[in-house]
Amino acid sequence: MKITVIGAGAIGSAVADELLAEANVAQVQVCDARVRSLQAMREQVQEDKRLRSFQVDARDLSELEPIISGSACVVGCVQAHFNPILAALCLSKGIHYCDLGGSSAIIEQQQALHEQARAQSVWIVPNCGLDPGLVNILCLYGMAQFDRVETVHLRLGDVPLEPEPPFNFRISWSAEKLLEDYTAPVHIIENGGIQQAEPLSHEENIRFPEPFGAMEAFYTDSGLITFARDLIGQVRTLDHKLIRWPGHAAQMRFLLALGFGENRSIDVHTHLTYRDVLLRRLRQRLGGVYRDAVLLRVLVQGWQNGQARTLVYEMIDRYDEEQSVSAMQRCTSIPTAAVALLIASGQVPGGGVAPPEAVIPHQAFYDLVTTRGLAITTTWHDGYVDVGNPAG
Fold first, then answer.
1. Hey, which of 160, 302, 360, 391 would disulfide with 149, CB 3.0 to 4.6 Å?
2. Domain contains 110
3. In the predicted model, what is the mean pLDDT of residues 289-295?
4. Residue 187's beta-bridge partner residues?
């Protein structure tokens, strides 16, 4: 089978590498408008005759159309606003499509294609990366092992291995996505109903093995509104918090309280907004290549065979020194490639628009991502334990 990846950036090139690791993939095509990105991708991806690259802009649909023709699946690894356009193009060609997700408004544009996609037995699957993506699937995979679920806590973060004061933080992917998560209302489930919470609030201590130790976690928007709506009636409590080195939430609250998250022009003589300035400075001061780790903990509490129990999934993934691949690249590309492979190989019957947790077979997905190197541990506890330190 042939799979096409749109975007040869850090994530797109890592997705291509993961796809080439599967023997039943006959060809992987990677498209990008930037020659340097394609060259860097070829340097990162091991030389493989099955790999083909095309210099083409994601906006040039007439040029993309013949390239993606015959693909079993197309994977979108470009800026989120391209996702609805690429999904519509794939649907017109009868090709499955998946991507890394975007804002609620972007997901709604894709959902408008649902009836047509279902009629054509074509899947359009957004939110296939790490969060949302892997985290959501682990959540439902764990919930299915209980007779009744009470509480679900989702905790995740990408952190530098060598934190440098004063920020102790680096941008792993997109400054725009980071700021969106820090300013958009957070949706959680409390007492069985959806509630809104302030981003960067409800800080808690969360502990991981050294060298991390005591970290902090706090509310951020992570596209949880659709997921929360789907779980109404299934859980009493659901929340999502981002993991950072201690002190980060207070720093970001300070910046945003000064108005640097506002889409308001600085003055009448410029089109620049305060948000534009903050985004530029975040990229300049906190961007670039660095050694990182992804910390993940999914905790599910409920009843099993008449007893209160807690299931904890945990993962600590570090920068790959040998391959010079970041933990964020690995933890995003491996789940994305797994979704694409399951869809492309015909293991997901039907069609429509839905997130991966709603359509992908959870066991097959779990087997794929763990086989590819994501070391997810599973621990059961009798009774209920604290998400901040389950073993304590």
1. 302
2. yes
3. 94
4. 196
